[in-house]
Amino acid sequence: MDGYAIHLKKDQINTPGGISFEITGRIPAGTTGHELKPGCAARIFTGAPTPKGANTVIMQEECELIEGDSKIEIYRPINLNENIRPMGNDIKIDDIILKKGLKLMPQAIALAASIGIGQLEVFKKIKVGVFFTGDELVKPGDTLKPGQIYDSNRYALTALLKNLDCDIINLNHVQDTLDDTVKALALLQDKCDLIITTGGVSVGEEDHVKPAVEQLGKLDLWRIKMKPGKPLAFGQVGQSAFIGLPGNPVSAMVTFLLFARPFIKKIQGCSHYLNTNFKVAANFDWHRPKPRREFVRVQLNQSSIPAKADQYPKQGSDVLSSMVWADGFAEIPEKSVFKSGEMINFYPLNEMML
Amino acid sequence: MNNQSVECGCDEIPQSLLSTDQALTTLTNAAKVINATEFVALDEALGRILATNIFLILMYPDLITLLWMATPFILKKIK
After folding, report:
1. Which end of chain A is flanked by fewer CB atoms within 10 Å, N or C?
2. Are A212 and A131 in contact (CB under 8 A)?
3. How far apart, in whole angstroms, are the C-alpha atoms of residue A46 and residue A60?
């Protein structure tokens, strides 16, 4: 703070008002000042170190300049060590101040800077290869012809990967043939740590991703007991891991966030790679037991304790507006039946999008 | 890429329906950390994953006074 550093004599400690001190120094931030003798004071400014001899600091508003500004007088009892932050108050020698695996946020960078560190050793960015199949998909901005739809997954996936600080190798649209799909995978397999696709991983004759991956590596097609997003493929192509997300837009995003995101964060070296959740109260009834775990898009009403979760009225895997409306996912366990007020797990989207 | 393959663990996975917990466990067990590292300036560090613990191990002795108001040290060495 701005004020006066003082060398308080023993008989001046906690003495009722009217004590004066001769001003013998001035210490702006960035300088160290001279040793203070007993009964003397030095003008001191925020950020400056206390000089040798100083044992308390008094804010300037409590000091009155007297005798042609050569002394200060203070009219209240003064104690030792007022307004002094001792060395090591924040961090002590040998403290780990930042742990391996930490995702560096502004506060961590500030702490590193505060102790003089100019650069940090970090894991290299992972390289993620993507390409998009589906002859019905059209780039936004182009005119739709009958049977065509706009491609949203391409933009969702690349944005999600950018949020995770991945280096993206994007082959963009690949013709929906087995030969072109194999060529795309072959191009990416030795350049990437991970390849991700959306759609085309089912077993239909127009689904070429599965046989293409199997030609170059190995693949397992999982049917997960969840909604949205039942099919998920996981495998390996050359040196690269492979994750095939479902093609429906909501399913693709939900499975990315619930499965691909923790996988990516772990290979990035992040120590906290699992999604966090907390309990909220359902603000809806769940009447019918269902065989699959559901991840319902909900909005939180935080005006009550606990916060209440309202569900979006349309929960189809094509209803992308539900993802924009929602604050997160409510996890509804398999075979559940409950009334409003039931405590359920909530996965916040704002955290999963980081 | 960072020259480390990621085993998919396909051989251990049952072919029938998986629970979400099984799928997540299988995926994260198969994920191996890419160990390649680099040094980046603080201006470039936002969002990156720290590859080593940062200790405060030594203060610069000339700057140590009995009581110290400002941020009190200069790091001599980083582990």
Report:
1. C
2. no
3. 11
Q: Report the amino acid identity of residue A269.
A: G
> Which letter, b or e, does each residue of A177-196 get, where b requires 16 or more Cβ atoms within 10 Å of its Cβ?
eeebbbbbbebbbeebbbbb
**Under 8 Å between Cβ of A20 and A28:** no
Spell out which residues of chain A touch residue B58, defining contact as CB-CB under 8 Å.
93
Reported for A227-230, long-range contacts at CB under 8 A and 24+ positions apart, including other chains, are: A227/A290, A227/A292, A227/A293, A227/A294, A227/A295, A227/A317, A228/A254, A228/A255, A228/A295, A228/A315, A228/A316, A228/A317, A229/A254, A229/A255, A229/A258, A229/A295, A229/A317, A230/A292
Q: Nearest-CA neighbor of A76 among A139, A1, A155, A17?
A: A17
Q: Are A246 and A200 in contact (CB under 8 A)?
A: no
Instruction: Assess contact for A258 and A295: CB atoms under 8 A.
Output: yes
User: For domain A278-352, which CATH number applies: 2.130.10.10, 2.40.340.10, 1.20.120.1200, 3.40.50.300?
Assistant: 2.40.340.10
- Answer yes or no: CATH 3.40.50.300 is held by domain A3-74: no
pLDDT in tens, A22-41: 999 999 888 888 899 999 99
Chain A environment of B75 (Cβ under 8 Å) = 115-117
* Among the listed residues B39, B34, B3, the one whose alpha carbon sits nearest the alpha carbon of residue A191: B3
How far the first Cα of chain A sits from its last, in Å, is 37
Query: Which residue, among A32, A59, A117, A193, would best test binding to B if mutated, counting the most B CBs under 10 Å from its CB?
Result: A193
Element housing A53 (H / E): none
pLDDT digits (tens, 9 = 90+) for A120-144: 999 999 999 999 888 888 889 999 9
User: Does A96 touch chain B if contact means CB atoms closer than 8 Å?
Assistant: yes
Which token pair is B66?
A: 């009995």
Q: By the 8 A CB rule, do A209 and A177 touch?
A: no
Hey, what CATH topology would domain A127-268 get?
Molybdenum Cofactor Biosythetic Enzyme; Chain A (3.40.980)
With an 8 Å Cβ cutoff, are B56 and A86 in contact?
A: no
More confident residue, B9 or A88: A88
